[in-house]
Design a protein that fits this description.
29% of the residues lie in helices and 29% in strands. It has 561 residues and is an alpha/beta fold. Bound molecules: nicotinamide-adenine-dinucleotide.
């Protein structure tokens, strides 16, 4: 555990730095890598022998001579100081602190929305969003920053680009300046929080310049996208592929020019591969994941995690024993329509969600590949269900009490997956959620129909067409499958006068490479995983219970997940 001293003292009674910093303190504790002492008394800066890094956010100054000397000596002997928000300005009369910084910050600008652009490459800003918005006060560092300082954040400021955060070596230690902040609104930005977390980790001497080698076990339909993302994320590098099929291996060689292996064992034997992405058909996941963990690799498993909960539990235990990261590629958590739905629910603006109906499907002959063969796929539930149940359990935080499900096989005889499956979840607080997957649905239900105590949200399918010109100049129309367009989300809120107001939500931009950026952040910097394997375990617990319920004619099955 890295010991941090968070000095969060407010002179001005309007400023509660400690309360504002609560999300940062939560993030630091959640990683399990930091032990945080929060202090408001400057005298605590006089003895830092037990701490590796100081995060200071204060408008209280100057420091007394003893604290100033002790802090400066400690930094020069290897400590890390992150001077955030107004700290440097509050300590401007402290010559030794000014010497650590090598510059004086500009005057404070009142809180406004800032466009923040990381200035990389640098371990503190690698993989952050290219640009993000923070509503905060600003104290620029631009004028006369020392030549040995590295800019970390720039902001466009009145038709110029200005430095708002920097890092500078100071003897054997590290000094970091963050001129953005001042109140709770700044800490509400996820990217800014991540930046502060990284600054503290860097101040503590963590500067992993290393790259993790990644191998893909299975090079199927989805694998090229994994490979592309790995090429775009700093800190990860594709180093090998294994696939049983010669054609797939040749494809991988052509796409990425990496080493290819006939068997997964060949891939696991390569020491340059430290992380294995398991992208083989679902019934093979558990065995390959366990083999990879036994070989000392970190593992990303494609969804569904496995077909049986007992396999999941074995994988979780093996990852714990091997002290390796295990996560599941729940890639649709970042779908813009789901992100907007989740934000709406979590904001509390429509009250407490208590009823959800979700749907995927249409009327069409199922494919004749393994996806529709139950012994390999797990059945109709496990394909889209892996995403829909994951979404449901992110929206409803309560324990699942019971699951009941029915399946109908009425039309397509040439496949073993069912034509039509409906799952009902009951949560401990009485809330309910259902998921319908139907390949014989001539009429579509909305993607989501969600009711909450003070509003509701409907996600309607959009039927978008892509129009292009053919080779003979004729118009070519390509209709996207409904699942390929984000749903149109409408929020309904009673207006208190007997009517209901409707609002069509603007969807956020898709965050690029979100899963793999987080994986690199986790492996390199210990940031929390976006998809803890326990989340994916809950998904499998529900899907397995639904499978049992189907076998028992729809009887409710207790889950406790
Ligand atoms: N996250 C998503 O949105 C998403 C999207 C598509 C697929 N997937 C998942 O990805 C996985 C793969 O799906 P796909 O559509 O790419 O399948 P696919 O059949 O196209 O690819 C699987 C590949 O694995 C290879 N393979 C099978 N067994 C192997 C073994 N023991 N060793 C090495 N290679 C082996 C096959 O030759 C094939 O090339 C599935 O779990 C699927 O559910 C997830």
């Amino acid at each position: 555990m890295i010991p941090i001293l968070a000095y969060l003292s407010a002179r001005n009674p309007d400023r509660d730095h400690a309360a504002a910093a609560a999300p940062l303190l939560r993030l630091l504790r959640r990683t399990g890598a930091f032990e945080v002492d929060v202090v408001t008394d400057a005298s605590r800066l006089a003895d830092l022998s037990h701490h590796r890094v100081v995060f200071a956010a204060t408008d209280d100054g100057p420091l007394g001579a003893e604290e100033e000397q002790a802090l400066s000596d400690w930094v020069r002997q290897g400590g890390g100081l992150v001077a955030a928000h107004g700290t440097l300005a509050a300590w401007r009369e402290n010559r030794l602190i000014r010497e650590l910084a090598g510059f004086a910050p500009a005057d404070r600008v009142d809180s406004t929305e800032l466009v923040v652009r990381p200035a990389g490459p640098h371990p503190v800003v690698d993989r952050l969003d290219d640009e993000f918005f923070v509503t905060a006060e600003l104290q620029l560092a631009s004028d006369g920053i020392p030549p040995d300082a590295t800019a970390l954040l720039n902001v466009p400021w009145r038709y110029s680009s200005q430095v708002a955060a920097l890092a500078r070596p100071a003897g054997d230690g590290r000094f970091l300046y963050v001129g953005i902040g001042g109140g709770p609104a700044a800490y509400a930005s996820v990217s800014f929080l991540q930046f502060l977390y990284r600054s503290i980790a860097f101040g503590a001497g963590q500067a992993p310049a290393r790259v993790f080698g990644v191998g893909l076990a299975g090079y199927g339909a989805i694998a090229r996208d994994h490979g592309r993302q790995l090429g775009e994320v700093a800190g990860l590098e594709l180093r090998g592929v294994s696939d049983l099929a010669p054609g797939r291996r040749a494809q991988a060689e052509g796409d990425f020019g990496v080493a290819v292996h006939e068997t997964v064992d060949g891939l696991l034997a390569d020491p340059a591969v430290e992380v294995v992405v398991v992208g083989t058909p679902p019934n093979t996941h558990a065995e390959i994941v366990l083999g990879a963990l036994a070989a000392g690799k970190h593992v990303v498993c494609e969804k569904p995690f496995a077909l049986r909960l007992s396999d999941v539990d074995q994988m979780l235990a093996a990852a714990r024993a091997a002290e390796r990261t295990l996560t599941v590629y729940q890639s649709r958590r970042w779908d813009p329509d789901f992100v907007a739905l989740r934000q709406t629910v979590e904001s509390g603006s429509i009250g407490r969600a208590f009823h959800l109906e979700s749907f995927i499907g249409g009327y069409g002959h199922p494919c004749s590949y393994w996806h529709t063969h139950e012994p390999i796929s797990g059945g109709t539930i496990y394909d889209w269900g892996s995403h829909y149940i994951d979404w449901t359990l992110l929206l409803f935080k309560e324990q699942v009490a019971t699951v009941s499900a029915v399946a109908q096989d009425l039309v397509w005889r040439d496949v073993t997956n069912s034509d039509h499956v409906n799952i009902d979840l009951r949560f401990a607080d009485g809330s309910q959620a259902s998921f319908l997957h139907s390949d014989i649905a001539s009429a579509l239900k909305p993607k989501w129909y969600l009711l909450a105590t003070a509003g509701g949200v409907v996600g309607d399918w959009r039927r978008e067409s892509v129009l292009t010109r053919g080779t003979m100049d004729e118009l070519v129309e390509d209709r996207l499958a409904p699942a390929d367009s984000p749903a149109r989300l409408t929020v309904f809120r009673p207006n208190g006068e007997g009517g209901v107001a409707e609002e069509v939500l603007a969807l956020p931009r898709r965050v690029r490479n979100a899963f793999y950026r987080n994986l690199a952040d986790h492996l390199l910097l210990g940031e929390p995983l976006s998809v803890p394997p326990e989340d994916a375990r809950r998904n499998i617990a529900v899907m397995e219970a639904a499978t049992h319920s189907i076998a028992q004619g729809g009887r409710p099955v207790r889950v406790g997940a």
